[in-house]
Amino acid sequence: MKILVTGAAGRLGSKLLTVLAASGHEVIGADIVGDNVSRLDIGDFEATRDFVDNLRPDAIIHPAAWTDVDGCAKDPEKAIAINGFGTQHVALAAANIGASVLYISSNEVFDGIAGRAYREYDITNPINPYGYSKWVGERSLVNINPKHYIVRTAWLFAHGGKNFIQAILNAAQAGKRLRVVSDEIGNPTYNDDLAEAISKLIITGRYGIYHFVNEGACSRYEFARYFLNKAGFKDTPAEKISAAEWPRASLPPAYASMTNLAGKHIGITLRPWQEAVDDFLAKEGLTQ
Fold first, then answer.
1. pLDDT for the residue numbered 161
2. Domain range holding 152?
3. Is residue 45 part of a domain?
4. Which of 30, 79, 203, 240 has the CB geometry, 3.0–4.6 Å to 182, for a possible disulfide?
5. Which pLDDT tens digit goes with each residue over 164-176?
6. Which are the catalytic amino acids?
7. Among candidates 230, 256, 234, 231, which has minimal Cα distance to 243?
8. CATH number where 7 lies
């Protein structure tokens, strides 16, 4: 297949380029920044349509987004412009040439009050501007292009990027006081595992909504305590706090874990999050 990957300078986008090329696809990466990628601003409809018209890919994988959750809360119109209408532009351009679109969405499209893991077709109800902008992207794609995959993920950690694992370990190494939220529940997900799952899905033609997260759910505190112990900080104390004690611009859903039913139905699963963290730490040289 000929596949266009948006946001190709990002952690997921760049990993997708590698994984898809290794699977024998013709892969083109596009982004507004970065080396060895084509220039594309998904916020510009005319430019997006012309780029896709000229390239004529069979499929577009669309991880390009504004993922600064607190930034989205401070500027919700910008969030919708990028995550919502940017996805609309990609969906329209793809529909015009008959290409499929795989859109990366988030567990934050849910309100977190169900008290159980969310399934793919549960009712969405975002409670913050980031989640709303990703929901707008979902609805745009569904309404425009029937050849769509929506892949929701959560708590992504990747090599070479800023994420929860690196932030906590850096603080522990610096001897800083660790305070970690214990009443926010989700699914830690390894960027590399997500990319592999997407590469399997894009060739199936089984359009619909998917929850691709590493198996199992935990609190932010449980997540932190696990990798601290594995990285040699077993004796480093970490204080449990509530989300209310950690003020931030965006309100995250309290219980937004997801379950992968649709993926399992077609044979695509991700390993338990603990195994994924072990692998990540080993590759980073952090296991002790």
1. 73
2. 2-163+187-216+257-272
3. yes
4. 240
5. 999 999 999 999 9
6. 130
7. 256
8. 3.40.50.720
